[in-house]
Amino acid sequence: MSTQTITYKNDASITAEQLSSVFKASGIKRPSDDLERLESMIHHANILITAWDSDKLIGVARAITDYSYCCYLSDLAVRLDYQSQGIGRELVQRVQETIGEEVALILLSSPTAMQYYPKLGFEKIDNGFKIARKR
Prior knowledge:
Blueprint: E1 6-10, H1 16-26, H2 35-44, E2 47-53, E3 56-65, E4 70-78, H3 87-99, E5 104-106
Parallel strand pairs: 4-5
Antiparallel strand pairs: 1-2, 2-3, 3-4
Helix pairs in contact: 1-2
């Protein structure tokens, strides 16, 4: 980890390899070895906010939104060796600034992050459903 200041970028161009590296280094469960799928995930996101230590991608928030009613935060990942520095919090805050106050920010949490999201202002909801992906 560098002593340089962390910088944040909206809609920076990143590669599937960079996203894969962040996913693997963060512990988040994603199809990290399916680079074609990751490329599609990058391409189809409405919001992509990244955190950088110099030229090293260290965090990412990726979201899908209509910019008027709801926004789904599909990925929030920060490399383990950069966690607990407020980077995830800053990424979420920047998503919120991008979507504005009229848009609800929703997500599905991994079991290991259930205690983290309330610290960022998320409230737990019980009225959700999903149809799981097949692969």
